[in-house]
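Give me the fold.
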Amino acid sequence: MKKIALIFSLVSACFPARSQGPYTEKQLIEKTIELYFDGWATGDTVKVGKAMHASCHLKNYGGGKFTEYTRNQYLALFKPHPRPKNLATRIVSIDITNNMGSAKVEIGTEKDLFTDYFNLMKTDEGWMIADKVSTRTPKIMGDENVEAGRKIDSLFASYNWQTPGAAVAIVKDGKVVFRKGYGMADLDHDIPITPQTVFNIASVSKQFTAFAIYLLADEGRISLEDDVRKYITELPDYGKVIKIKHLLAHTSGLRDQAAVGSLTGNKSGDISTTEQILKLVIRQKNLNFAPGSAFGYCNTGYTLLAEIIHRVTGRSFAAYTNERIFKPLGMTSTGFCDNHETVVKNKAESYELINGRYHHKPLNTSNPGPSNLLTTVEDLVKWQLNFETPVVGTPAMMKAFNEVSYLDNGQKVVLRVFGDGDTVFHAKGQNLSSHKGVPMITHGGHAAAFRTFMGRFPDHRLAIIALSNDEHNERLNARWQIAEFYIKDKLIEEKPSAPAPNQSIVKPITTYPDNLKDFAGGYYSDELSASYTFVVRGDALIMTHLKLSDIELKRVGDNKFSGSGPETFAFEIEFLRNAKKAVTGFTISNFGVKNLKFVKVK
């Protein structure tokens, strides 16, 4: 792409564009693309060649690799032929910057859909194609799904050769009715996303870890009622038994590894391994709540589940799941990653848009279980179909796996309750809820800038898989709109709730003692092997750590403060005083850690 930009500049300088009548620049680009379409349709090399600059460079992407052509090599591939039946061409988008242009186009035949990304330049001869990247996807949609496919395209129309994007697959009535890629898997090397692109699916991985545990239990090698310490013997004795079923249901009470890690000073992009996490977990002296008594989302539990499989089988977790799940299902591009340095072909990078430019969001994790499954939408289709016609697992096991989890008192495990009363229940790495009255089983994921979703509507035999390498993908709100394209007539339209009365609430002004200096000093936690220093700057208390940005705390009580930073989860702090009112330490809590203690050391 950089070479093309240089060509643009040289051509524009040497050949000032002549007046081309009343057409807009966009219309002139459309005429060039239509000329290319017409030549492509009949094998007319004169027309195709006229649309392409002499220096044009072309790449066809498939099977995880590029096949490259010069202009002459590409033209030599064409032979005159009749216009294909049911040929459909479409200009999806055009962008113009000065004398440079880009376009995304589609050419559909009876069997295939070609998605092309053009770079164009304005010359003395008019707009010409300067380079092209093409992907080819076999058509699998029947006529009844074409309209839904077009609507899905519209949801992802903002993705192009300059952006990250997404891969989408839809399964309906036991058949794949849609699969397609949008945008780029690798912006550095101009590699487009296809249905074969490999993504890290983040927390969507959890259902595979849970399923592997169910397989191990089905083999009679473990019981879901087993004490976790039977296998993880170094885990502290908290005075209450944590069972394997508690890990599955997020009801163990264990502190969440990500929440704990953020308090040690870990940042996004840091290297994280299972060994490191286990060392940190066994240092924790307390639970957030009694096992089986409440729900608390906990990645730690799924790290321990993967470790249990490793210790029971004597094989790596990645090897066990490959043998028992992925190979039998033919998921050849799928596997848990236990070494972040492993080369994985056709893998997407993840990106975040910051101040108008895309930035890499690296994921250096070697901790399979709670996350770190690498897979494609094509492979996940096979996983979804296994729920309808089991190849791996028995029907009885599948039924139990998909049922809601329970607390020890017999109540269902509730993930959250929305304002309108809709309840989301948890079921072993999956969530049970409804969308406009239609039951569904779903889970999402977020790691680095990967945003992932997989959901099933079992009563209507519909499954949606959407994997993205764009941090801001959630803004598209695509998943529910996709569902509505396929089961619109089954949905119960929700009545808009009455607007809340406009009541202005006057909050009383709270004054606190002028004693911020009481809290200044150094504090240490042996559970984290971490230190923080608090300093007073002006009228603010600042929390500092060697690895983290300074955080200005907000006072919310005589001894209580709250805060958050770019590398930390939101947290609350309560300083502790002795009988003489001297500050001796503090406790800190966030979404996955409750009352972890630091002691004042200076």
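Residues 1-20 have pLDDT under 50 and may be disordered.
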